[in-house]
From TrEMBL:
Keywords: Hydrolase, Lipid metabolism. Residues 304-313 have a biased composition (Polar residues). GO terms for cellular component: cytoplasm. It comes from Physeter macrocephalus (Sperm whale). Residues 320-330, 361-376 have a biased composition (Basic and acidic residues). Residues 295-330, 361-385 are annotated as: Disordered. This is Inositol polyphosphate 4-phosphatase type II isoform X3. InterPro entries: INPP4. GO terms for molecular function: phosphatidylinositol-3,4-bisphosphate 4-phosphatase activity. Signal peptide: none annotated. The gene is INPP4B.
């Protein structure tokens, strides 16, 4: 398999007989190292800890004590359930909007009916999955052997916190966390046609080139349509509430309160008006116009001057070629501008009226009703003529009604036109399009469960580190994934799924709130393009946070993935297959990591940076990583070590993944742990291999194998191991045929 050439296969195992490091004891008690008051919070999400204690010699012949801990998380099930509920809501809402699209010409109407049938089926499927998952109360672990189960599709495989706590004689205690989890992938759908990265690309290319019977909107524009729809649905009720509050202030005749209410109303209305500035709304309105019965243009609506990238080059479908084709001029493009501008004008009327009321209240003078700027809104009219003693409520009420009406009109038109954009996305290639959405949801759910788990643990361990908290709200957190998948056979598809799932995590932001009850489980809000995960902290912990975080500032994450296949399949890929997927993933993610580093250097305070630079040579490490990625060396595990080191130095969240997070992952995390002990805690160099073997033989990871497949053996055979890089081979007696 190649690795023998290096002269490394003389010993398949790295075990040194007779010279064992000491595994002092096993315990099941949760870790007691961090601040005690944080424990209930962490214990609410971590379950079934397995602990192992070791004692290893240091280079100056003292002893270091190591506590290794591995815990499951109830977030494995909680997050998928939260997410599926949200996705059902989002899809139900979209289906409703499709139904409310109004009258369409027969072609579009049939298309819509077809889309709705499939979308309803899809929602039913999500509901069934949610029902099944809800039966799993209290579950916190999905084993590797259940990875293909349909009802557990959204649940991450074998998710654990792998923690190493080091007490070394001369150094401060240190904690090293890695989240271990099976690569987020759609095992139930399988990998016959590849994974998301390829499938999405292929789907988009085909869709772009098959403009027949629907209008092509780019993924960016479809996403924009969803964003505007979501903004509308949030802003409209908010504006209505602020308008009612303004009326309330008016009836109380309170100038201060009136001013404040007006300020809020103005801000929200401006946001609302701004939301429609997009050219997409304009082009979508025209498109919808053509899809109404009789509303046909000579040409399909061309988004040439709009944000649209390309439109169908194919001839319009037959039903467009009617004799009674109206001219472009039949469509009054300016009507939208008028409707839209009415909202702004209505607001101006309200502002003018409030100014006038307050002014006259103060001066007791009369008014000619002409308004300050002389501009009259759509219905200000005679109601602007007012007197000091008049009821403020009476004066404002009709204006508020007008604002709400104008807003309703805008919302109605924009909603329908943008829903029409969504119909185009769904219209092509049903039901493949929905299966692709399902696949992306499944993969994302697994990735998100891991991320939330990692975030909460990171927050818990670094809660009293001011540098970390500053970084959290000014820069955001790097989340680094180490992938060990091969670029051969099925694992290509897994890696393609994983790459998209991890990249989709960019759409997630965190928000920390104060827990008001004992329920500290995270809550998710949002929709597919943008989710917010609310993490609740008990009062005392919440109080210690910086103001920006307490005020609800969104905290962002920057996911990066580096993959290096290490097994016999990777040897085949290198010899006879293709490793370009791994190469491009590593190259692309290196750029992302570099970008993060640049922002980190720019945004963190100068004092912090100068201290940071004294301690770390991040520039050098990044350069080294870059060179290793460019070098295109086989099984270059240096890439993983460098990426992990950079992540640790940048205070990031570490993940290690392979197909099941059981065998290869166990080899990698144990190697990482021992390498840290050697490089950071003066582990005696003669004991490096012994410590490694000891951990693999008796540590938490062999327990992980046991809990997954009920057998205490890593699922490797001798032949496979010959292909593994040297330090990834477990000791004799710990591997063999296992029924996985
Ligand atoms: O935890 P993994 O490394 O993904 O487990 C693999 C193992 O590496 C491989 O040798 C073995 O043949 C199996 O394919 C394992 O995967 P399972 O998902 O079957 O546990």
């Amino acid at each position: 398999m190649g690795e023998i050439e290096d002269g490394e296969a003389d010993h398949i195992t790295t075990d040194v007989q007779g010279q064992k490091c000491a595994l002092v004891c096993e315990c099941t008690a949760p870790e007691s190292v961090s601040r005690k008051d944080n424990l209930p919070f962490l214990n609410a999400v971590l379950k079934n800890p397995v602990c192992k204690l070791y004692r290893f010699p240091t280079s100056d012949n003292k002893w270091m004590r190591i506590r290794e801990q591995m815990s499951e998380s109830i977030l494995s099930f909680h997050i998928p359930k939260e997410l599926i509920s949200l996705q059902i809501k989002e899809d139900l809402c979209r289906n409703q909007e499709l139904k409310e699209l109004g009258e369409l010409s027969p072609h579009w109407d049939n298309l819509r009916k077809n889309v709705l049938t499939h979308c309803d089926q899809m929602v039913n499927m999500y509901q069934d999955i949610l029902t099944e998952l809800s039966k799993e109360t209290g579950s916190s672990f999905k084993s590797s052997s259940s990875k293909g189960e349909k009802t557990l599709e959204f649940v991450p495989i074998n998710l654990h916190l792998q923690r190493m706590h080091v007490h070394s004689p001369h150094l401060k205690d240190a904690l090293y966390d890695v989240i271990t989890v099976g690569a987020p992938a759609a095992h139930f759908q399988g990998f016959k046609n590849g994974g998301l990265r390829k499938l999405l690309h292929r789907f988009e290319t085909e869709r772009r080139n098959t403009g027949y019977q629907f209008i092509y909107y780019s993924p960016e524009n479809t996403a924009k349509a969803k964003e505007v729809l979501s903004n509308i649905s949030q802003l409209q009720p908010l504006i209505a509430t602020h308008a009612d509050l303004l009326l309330n202030s008016a009836s109380q005749h309170s100038p201060e309160s009136l001013k404040n209410s007006l300020k809020m109303l103005s801000e929200k209305t401006e946001l609302f008006v701004h939301a429609f500035k997009d050219q997409l709304v304009r082009s979508a309105l025209l498109a919808l116009y053509t899809a109404r019965p009789g509303g046909v243009l000579k040409k399909p609506p061309s988004p040439k001057n709009s944000t649209e990238e390309s439109s169908s080059q194919d001839p319009p479908p037959p039903m467009r070629r009617q004799d009674s084709i109206p001219h472009h001029s039949d469509y009054d493009e300016e009507e939208w501008d008028r409707v839209w501008a009415h909202v702004g004008k209505s607001l101006n009327c309200i502002i003018a009226m409030v100014d006038r009321l307050i002014e006259r209240d103060g001066s007791g003078e009369g008014d000619d009703g002409s308004g300050k700027d002389g501009e009259k809104g759509p219905s200000l009219g005679d109601s602007a003529i007012t007197h000091p003693q008049e009821d403020w409520y009476e004066q404002l009420y009709p204006l508020i009604l007008t604002l709400k009406d104008c807003m309703g009109e805008v919302v109605n038109r924009a909603k329908q036109s943008l829903t029409f954009v969504l119909l185009q996305e769904l219209a092509y290639s049903l039901p493949q399009c929905l299966m692709l959405t399902l696949r992306r949801d499944v993969v994302f759910s697994q990735a998100l469960a891991g991320l939330v788990c990692g975030f909460i643990i990171k927050l818990h361990t670094s809660l009293y580190d001011p540098g970390f908290l500053e970084q959290l709200h000014t820069v955001g957190l790097i989340v680094q994934y180490e992938g060990l998948l091969s670029t051969y056979s099925e694992e290509i598809g897994m890696l393609e799924d994983m790459a998209v799932g991890i990249s989709d995590l960019k759409k997630v932001a965190f928000k920390i709130t104060e827990a008001t009850s004992n329920d500290v489980l995270p809550v998710i809000t949002g929709r597919r393009e943008h989710y917010v995960v609310e993490v609740k902290l008990p009062g005392r912990m919440f109080e210690s946070l910086p103001l920006q975080i307490k005020e609800g500032q969104l905290l962002h994450v920057y996911p990066v993935l580096f993959n290096v296949g290490i097994n016999e399949q990777q040897t085949l890929a290198e010899r006879f297959g293709d490793v370009s997927l791994q190469e491009s993933i590593n190259q692309e993610n290196f750029e992302l990591l570099k970008e993060y580093y640049t922002v980190f250097m720019e945004k963190m305070p100068p004092d912090y940076i100068s201290h940071f630079q004294e301690q770390n040579d991040l520039k050098g490490l990044l350069e080294n990583l870059h060179q290793n990625i460019q070098a295109k060396k086989r099984k270059n595990v240096e890439i993983m070590w460098l990426a992990a080191t950079i992540c640790r130095k940048l205070n990031g969240i570490r993940f290690t993944c392979c197909k099941s997070a059981k065998d290869r992952t166990s080899m990698s995390v144990t190697l990482e742990q021992c390498s840290i002990l050697r490089d950071e805690h003066q582990l005696h160099k003669d004991f490096f291999i012994r410590a490694l073997d000891c951990m693999r033989r008796e540590g938490c990871r062999i327990e992980n194998v046991l809990k997954n497949i009920k057998c205490r053996k890593y699922a490797f055979n001798m032949l496979q191991l010959m292909a593994f890089p040297k330090y990834y081979r477990p000791p004799e007696g710990t591997y063999g045929k296992a029924d996985t």
